[in-house]
Every structure is written in C-alpha cells, then in structure tokens.
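PROTEIN ENTRY
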Amino acid sequence: MAEVISTIEAVDVRFPTSRELDGSDAMNPEPDYSAAYVTIRTSAGQEGYGLAFTVGRGNDVQVAAVQALAPLVIGLPLADILADLGGFSDRLTGDSQLRWLGPNKGAIHMAAGAIVNATWDLYGRREGKPVWRLLAAMTPEQLVDLVDFRYLREALTREEALEILRRAEPGRAQRQQHLLERGYPAYTTTPGWLGYTDEKLVRLAKQAVADGFGLIKLKVGADPDADVRRLRLAREAVGPDVRIAIDANQAWGVDQAIASLEPLAPYHPYWIEEPTSPDDVLGHAAIREAVAPIKVATGEHCHNQVMFKQLLQAGAIDILQMDASRVAGVTENVAILLLAAKYGVPVCPHAGGVGLCEMVQHLAMFDYVAVSGTTEGRVIEYVDHLHQHFVDPVVIRDGHYVAPTAPGLGARMHPASIAAYRYPDGPQWVSAEP
C-alpha cells in the first residue's frame, strides 16, 4: 500500500518573552513570541516539522488556519507530493473557499507555508540531507518547476529563471564546500530591542563586535529623542567601521519616515528596515529616493511573491528581507530568490522569531550555492533567544552561521519544550501570574 499523509497536527506554543522585553519594538512593545507548530505524519511513520511564527493571541487564528487546510493534504500519496512540490503548494494556496480569505496572504497563507515547510522537512529527513543541500542538488529544471510563473512573467520568465540557475551551476560544489568550511555571514539584533536599557544596549553591542558580527541592528520609531540617543550610544560603542542597521517596524508614515531619518543620518545607519506600511510599494520607493545613501529594506511582512515582484519592479528596496514562514514556505521562497537574482537585489533574511533562524538559513545558503552565487552584501539576521527549544539549533561561530548538516529544515522542537509552553495548559502558562 502506498505511503500517504496520515495526520497533520497543529499545536499552540507560546513563549513569555514579554517578561524580559526580548523582541520589543515600536509596534510590538511586549510580544510573546509564539508558533503554530505543525507536525505532518505519514502512514509509514515518517514525520516532518514546520511552524508559523506569531506573537501571542494571533496563534488562536493561526492554529485554526492550519487545521482548516489539513483535509486538503491528509490521504495524499507522499510519492506524488514529493514528485510535484510546486503542485502541492498550489493545492494548499488554491482551494477556492480558503483562498477567499487571502488570496495568498494572511493567516491562511502562513498556514500553507507551515505545512509546506513541514513537508520539505520530511523530504530532507527522508533523503538524509539538510534542506539547503537538498535544494542545491536539484537541477535548474526541477527548481523552476517549483515556481508558479502566472503572476510573475512580466518580471521573471521561466527561461530567465533557468538562465540564472544554469549560470550558477559551474561553481556549486566549490561554494558548498566554502559554506561547510566558513559558514554564512550573520548580523545580530540582540543588542537593539526597544525595551532594553541604554546600559544593556551598549554592553550587548560591544559583545556583538567581540563575537565577530560586522553589523548590528537597533529598533527605532517610538521616541525620536530616544532614537537619536540610542543610535549615538551604539555608534560610540562599536566604532565607525561596524555597520548599524535600524528598524522602525512600520511605525512611520512616508513623510514621517523621511523626516525621522534626518537626525539619525549623522550616525550612518546602513539600512532603514520597514520604515512604513509593508504594503506601500510606492511609499518605499519615495523613502528610498529621499534618504539615500541609507538603504531601504523590507520583506518580513510581505505577503507573497507578487508583492516582492512589485517592490523590485518599482525600485523600492535596496535589501530584500524574505521570511521563512510569512509566505507559502520553501517553495514560494525559491521564486522570491529568483526574482531578487533577476533584479540584482541582495537578500538579507529576516529571522527574529521562533525557529526563523533555524529555517531561513537553508534558504540563504541555497541562494549562495545555486542562485546568486555570492554572499556579497548579504547577511542573515540572528537573535540569541529560544534556540534551546529546538533539536537542531543554529550554531554561530565568529559572526557566521555554521552550515547545518542535520537532515531537514531545523524546525523540530523538543517535546519537553512543547509540553512546557503549550498554551494555555502548559505549566509555564498555568503557573504564570496574570
């Protein structure tokens, strides 16, 4: 009998990061980092793990969205899914009744991404390979078969995508070896959470430089005077040669963003991240024109590949910040990497959240090996909390992500962590003060 998908389980897992203000920013002052944690199982007992990252009560909706999609998958032969992962993604995002809730955006799209990522994790475990190597071993033809070009052709054709991948083929083996030896450049947001004291900011900024990071990031957007003070302190702490990125987390309107960056410019911020609404393509273009040479970065809240297409077509961003769980998983992110390569825009993935570092490293490393062929101007975000809850946590050495060698996508959590932080009945929540 053919092996089929037998169950899909979604668990509400929440971490009380608000207690120490880890993750705090202008729009999320007291977030509890959370995950709709997905396990996909087959009739032969194989498992894959994925998640959608949220910040608290949104997990109620996110778990329900995963459960709503599960009937589309249960009973499907695994061999058919793995033979057509592009078609599998289309099945999850194309159901007419559930698609109505997007289309291709919001909780239902993120739920599709969690299931897609769990399936890639299962695939990697089945093949005994980390997902970055699984992708990097695919032929250009196999990779473009993952992409739905229907809404992309004005910006990227199948033939152009094939040419990008074929151009990168000759150096794949050498770049893979370089990754295994050196890793992938990282930057850290750890010093810059908005709720941290000035003393903690300075201490962690100095520590980041000592640990080998060449770029740190600070949150801005809640208090203009505090933004200037904190950026000045960070610049004094790290010196003139370390890059400092700043992140407004959508706090400003377009004109407000331009005005707010003027007093920060003397401290040479490298990029301004999410300066305004993530949906405002033309707003980002206007900000980019006005604040150069400060670069404009966005993407962690970008709904889908079509929005990335428009940002690139409009010349609205200098840095593309893909996210492992915001769009429909690994499969759609392959399309986004190809779009970025077509337009020559570096990808610096977002990874501030539960399990995002663990998952998104695979996408950046695949990009280096098989798509863009470079790490020039590229870094993966790193934050230093919650990794202890994962079976295969990220490893950082000298400011670089160590290339993972364990099979899968890295999203598997320890059962003890799931039990402890399961909401609302896990002991970490039952015993918590109101």
Summary: The first strand starts at residue 5 and ends at 14. The chain has 18 helices and twelve strands.
